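cron nightly-structures :: item 1 of 1
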Amino acid sequence: MPSPLENQKALLEAIRKAEESWDLDAIVALRTSDATHELLPKTLDWPVLDNAGFKERMAGLVPVFQGNFKVFLPSLPLQAVAPC
């Protein structure tokens, strides 16, 4: 069974791969069912989106960024958390 730290690292790697490949199905699958997406600053007056709205908005960006987008994960201070 993987440790909590190994789970954190695996999740970060899954997010990196999904974001880098612009695999919207994989990105949304990694989000909670009640996740929202909000663009800032709020003065732009963009609506807060659920997962379906997020996927629709991001689909328009795929042709712009796909193939030219890299995600770099800096050294993050991950730590194992003891189960409650």
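cron nightly-structures :: done
The first helix runs from residue 4 to 21.
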